[in-house]
Design a protein that fits this description.
14 helices, about 40% helix, eight-stranded antiparallel beta barrel, about 450 residues
Length: about 450
């Protein structure tokens, strides 16, 4: 249950100096202290108002949040990796005269996107299970070395440790404010947007609270006393009362960053930079291959490097589709190997970002019933209903995850249609089938070409 859902089950007042809950268990004696006072005719009853200890809210949230520990550990790794990456990219930029944004993009694709398409031997998987460690990264680096080669990069661990120490020292100087302070700033901001000194929630609706200049209004049915100040309820605001939940996620980001700095500091002795040196050697080999329309084929996937754009593709081996639009007699059509691709285009600031990516398309000379344009050089793949759910399906994914998911869905459509036994042959039509060689099932089996849209 979110804080908003929990808090609004009762009655509460929101003021700049905090949140106060109504204790409805028993009336307050003698109408004294912080209280809600309600008048019915000549009778006045009061209930205590209890302040919410905001810092304890964060402690409760942190204890209940299982993700925090993993988030801190991952952030600690990044604290160590970030200055190393910056220095390495700077060194490569100087040595190869390449743009740092371009280097960063190639690095991300090679070592993060590539993780989703690396194969591991059974012995590696068993070893990882036995030793409780993941060898997927090691398998990726070994694969990239076999395809690209590597170069020895000599770097002093002592110098690298000193670099990270200086980086951490700068970060440590940035204080983490109390959760209480963060919440109060947000309360002040929200009240300013509502043009109110305070807000009272009675369990059904919100009303503005207006400070009484002198004594409390004798005619007011409802008066709230906080720290000796009287407030009366005035105009109705609406159903909503709090927009507080995102404050927790915002503070969580700051909290994780701060905690990760201390944890990273304890890991300085672990910096041998062996893995970073290995990655750097592979990255340099990839970049030295050239960035002017050079294709780096890496097995299941590959890159086409140009100065202003980077194309990432998945290789589709030869396959066959059954024509379910003409079910009897069974008709099969063979397709040559193809490449399903997305191009990342450099934006005006020089970065290669998700917002500047093309839709999936067929790269090169391949053909498919599921492309929207059979005549252009780069033919967009008709993604069917996937595009209707695009935002939901891909929401919250990192750029490498997004790229891998989007390309995988395009691969699936090219080889299986929108679903198994799909009778949609897109823009091909009856006459267009002639460009796809017709084969019998036996011929396909002899050639080792799988039918990819049959059960």
């Amino acid at each position: 249950m979110s804080f908003t859902e929990y808090a609004t089950k009762g009655q509460l007042a929101i003021l700049e100096n905090g949140i106060f809950l109504v204790d409805g268990c028993r009336p307050t004696p003698n109408l004294t202290g912080d209280r809600l006072e309600i008048k019915t005719g000549d009778i006045a009853l009061g209930w205590p108002m209890r302040p919410v200890h905001l810092n304890s809210l964060w402690l409760a949230y942190a204890r209940a949040n299982d993700r925090l520990e993993d988030a801190i550990n991952n952030a600690a790794k990044e604290v160590i990796a970030q200055p190393l990456k910056l220095v390495q990219e700077s060194q490569i930029n100087f040595a190869l005269n390449l743009d740092s944004n371009y280097i960063k993009a190639v690095r991300t694709i090679l070592f993060e996107f590539g993780l989703y398409f690396v194969e591991r031997k059974a012995s590696e998987i068993m070893g990882a299970l036995k030793n409780r460690e993941d060898t997927k990264t090691d398998a990726l680096l070994s694969h990239l070395e076999s395809k690209l080669g590597t170069i020895d990069i000599v770097s002093s661990p002592e110098k690298l440790r000193s670099l990270v120490e200086n980086f951490i020292a700068v970060l440590k100087d940035r204080p983490l404010e109390q959760f209480d302070t963060t919440v109060r700033k947000e309360l002040k901001s929200q009240l300013a947007r509502k043009d109110a000194e305070g807000v009272f929630w009675d369990g059904r609706k919100s009303v503005r609270l207006q400070r009484c200049n002198g004594a409390a209004d004798a005619n007011a049915e409802k008066t709230i006393y906080i720290n000796g100040v009287a407030y009366t309820a005035t105009t109705k605001i609406g159903q909503g009362v709090l927009e507080m939940d995102y404050v927790f996620s915002t503070y969580e980001t700051q909290f994780v960053r701060k905690q990760s700095i201390g944890r990273a500091e304890k890991r300085l002795d672990q910096i041998g930079a062996n893995m970073s040196q290995r990655e750097l050697g592979i990255l340099v080999m990839a970049l030295k291959a050239g960035n002017n329309d050079v294709t780096l084929d890496l097995g299941k996937w590959g890159l086409v490097l140009k100065p202003d754009k980077i194309t990432v593709y998945l290789n589709v081996p030869p396959y066959a589709l059954r024509d379910w639009a003409r079910p009897l007699p069974a008709s099969y059509h063979a397709f040559p190997k193809e490449r399903v691709a997305i191009t990342i285009i450099k934006d005006k600031s020089g970065e290669f970002l998700q917002d500047h990516c093309t839709a999936p398309y067929l790269l090169g000379e391949g053909w498919s019933p599921f492309i929207s344009d059979g005549h252009g050089k780069d033919r967009n793949i008709c993604m069917g209903t996937f595009n209707d759910h695009h935002a939901t399906t891909l929401h919250g994914l990192s750029f490498p995850q997004w790229l891998a998911k989007y390309l995988s869905e395009a691969y699936k459509i090219v080889t299986s249609g929108y679903n198994k036994r799909s009778d949609h042959w897109g823009y091909v039509g009856n006459a267009g089938l002639e460009m796809f060689p017709k084969k019998t099932k036996e011929e396909l089996e002899t050639l080792g070409i799988p039918v990819t849209n049959e059960d």
